[in-house]
TrEMBL record, chains A, B, C, D:
Class II aldolase/adducin N-terminal domain ranges (all copies): 8-198
Family assignment from sequence similarity: Belongs to the aldolase class II family. AraD/FucA subfamily.
Lineage: Bacteria, Pseudomonadati, Bacteroidota, Chitinophagia, Chitinophagales
SUPFAM superfamilies (UniProt xref): AraD/HMP-PK domain-like
Keywords in alphabetical order: Metal-binding, Zinc
Database matches in NCBIfam families: PRK08193.1
Documented EC number(s): 5.1.3.4
Protein name per its UniProtKB record: L-ribulose-5-phosphate 4-epimerase
Top-level division of the source organism's lineage: Bacteria
Cofactor: Zn(2+)
Primary enzyme class: isomerase
Length: 231, 231, 231, 231
């Protein structure tokens, strides 16, 4: 089987989504890229998770063209392609409609940084990109979704290598990472942070954002030059 | 065994309800119709899911009369019969008391279309029919429930082939589809959309409805003439 | 083994509590009575569910005295005994600290009848007894808890054969029934109704109570002389 | 294998965290101490639960120095060490980011004592220590977290042998006990009490705290000289 490595990686990462409670039916997809070949493997569209296999993954190039595969690729494939093409340090992308993260996207609010669970992964509020202009929607919608994500990062001067998640307003979350497995991990973290933030505001509508010293410390102990979190 | 096809279809669809977390005990029922025979198979009343079998399904005609079966059919059988009789394109109906959809029904509110998870399945708010008039309740209640559902669709000029779900005010949801399996799918989608919408309002009480361009795009990519969602 | 029937019944009913998600650790207990002997079997105190057996149940008389058993009976035993002694038509009692029902008890509010899920089981709001007077608490607390429950029913002119559940203010729910299995069923129904009612108010703070005609119809179809719900 | 007893105890207690739904990925850690040796065993940092074994636990002394172990210990190890050194009656400590307890920590509120589920375990509101001063954060952060916890107890005149849990503001909960298993039990109790308290306020924003007579009675029946709760 050709492209075996990314097929296997994409398959295993996709299968994590239902196990982590992040998807209902087929409402999610993961891709895994091989930069040396300029290709990625992605879940086929509308196929139930229990019928997936490495062989059913579809191979796509960074311009969004199908290279190999009998099944139609995920309808979000063009969004993945755009992000791989422009964000050259990522090798995995995940899209879900997980309940709490999607609720924040529908509420069109950034998720405020309320605690260290958030700060262990991000130093900023998790951004919510505004809904797209009608002209973008009516055109090549999924392709433009990729630009909507990149534009939001550009406007806010965020680095996609540091902040590996976003909410697309009225839609749902996207996450990414150096591997497909890391992108899935980020989706699960985002869902938990989203639920905690909603409950935090329910318990205290005036809850303050995390203080700067704690943001800095938690980020550095996990990601800084002297990181001591994890092996 | 006679009517084996619809017995099997109804049995399998009913068994999905507890797996999808949509029912407590026996609080739900699914039916599967065979239009060529003018009959449907429905769950017997009050029998636990783990004691069901294809043979225990009850066969009913579209006037609500029992054609075959030793057990009493679901108490909601007349509602199913009325809908099959008048909505001639459906072959499966589901009734549950799933928690979040039922909460919206009890709140007597339509579920606003807040995001693309909703728009992938409906272009309109999910309708909540008002509670029935006392005269309808005191008469043939379940039979009248079918008309309450159809009247709500008629008044709002909704097409049951496009919108496959409704909340009955103070009661609970009904869903339907071209197959029993599709009707079950719709019940699970409705429950998730109901939960997301509640959390959306909790996170932002002023959350706007989804913009028209997004409603149109998500519907068309899944249901339009050039649909590219699913296989 | 003596008293085998009620030991077995109490054991099986107790084991349903963790399966139904109604208890954390040992925070719940079920008893099963044999009226001909004037005895009931109850869970021992503080023993994890996975270490229970029919033989570990403790046999108690309706005055609360231990008749047989090496283990200490549930700390709520006196409440069970009082209820069996005065409410002569019940043969099973359940006490849990299930999350949503307990939240209503802590909020010291009756659960309003908002829909048919509630009406299928009760024609009235689920009563919340006020917290006990200090003198009752400082005396024989669990014994007095039984009277607090009965006093609440007497003051509101409720019949324990029709309403099989109560919240004890600041504490948690008790349910009962003609069998221990029915009492467990009632605990699960109560927990679901409690969650639905909380969400109903979150979705619509002005949600109206269920109209009388629906209360009457749903009760009669399940419990009236011409009941047609269940087999 | 040396230190087998505390390795085994720490391993088993750590494995309870995912089973009780208290952790996502590796967001939690348990330690088990042997006072006669002045050592404790703690989970290694960032290792998934399904890859843990007694042998992978790291052995640490009460000054926070690693005595045995190839893996890096949990990043929270210094907090554990400080608490073991100063609170000489505890032999187990747990740290999690469980959703509801963490939401209260992020809201920077004590959890009010609203009912008997809480009173069975604590006679006071569950304390939330304020976020640390910047100078403490910028120094030896995890070491200072231990002092932040102890300072909160000292200021409020709480006894760590009676109140076995705390929220660290903006961060998450810590619990402890005479054994690692008891500390895990306390983490699960705290999470349930946190969820119940949030829902209590949602159902009744003016819910009163539990009356003193009930606080005293529930505490005494479980912990007093004449305790009769549990075996």
């Amino acid at each position: 089987m050709r492209y075996e490595h990314i097929r296997q990686e994409a398959y295993e990462a996709n299968m994590q989504l239902p196990r982590l409670g992040l998807v209902l039916f087929t409402f999610g997809n993961v891709s895994a890229a091989d930069r040396s070949q300029g290709l990625f493997a992605i879940k086929p569209s509308g196929v139930p998770y229990d019928q997936l296999s490495p062989a059913s993954m579809v191979i796509i190039d960074f311009d969004g063209k199908t290279v190999e595969g009998d099944l139609r690729p995920s309808s979000d494939t063009q969004t993945h392609a755009v992000l791989y093409k422009h964000w050259t340090a990522i090798n995995g992308i995940v899209h879900t409609h997980s309940v709490y993260a999607t609720a924040w996207a529908q509420a069109q609010r950034d998720i405020p940084i309320y605690g260290t669970t958030h700060a262990d992964h991000n130093t900023v509020d998790i951004p919510c990109a505004p809904p797209m202009e009608d002209s973008m929607i009516e055109g090549d919608y999924e392709y433009q979704t990729g630009f909507q994500i990149m534009n939001c990062f550009a406007e806010r001067k965020l680095d996609y290598r540091e902040v590996e998640m976003i909410l697309v307003g009225n839609h749902a979350p996207f996450t990414w990472g150096k591997t497909a497995a890391k992108a899935v991990y980020n989706s699960a973290v985002l869902e938990t942070v989203a639920q905690m933030a909603m409950h935090t505001e329910q318990i205290n509508p005036n809850a303050p954002r995390l203080k700067e010293a704690l943001i800095k410390k938690h980020w550095e102990r996990k990601h800084g030059p002297d990181a001591y979190y994890g092996q």
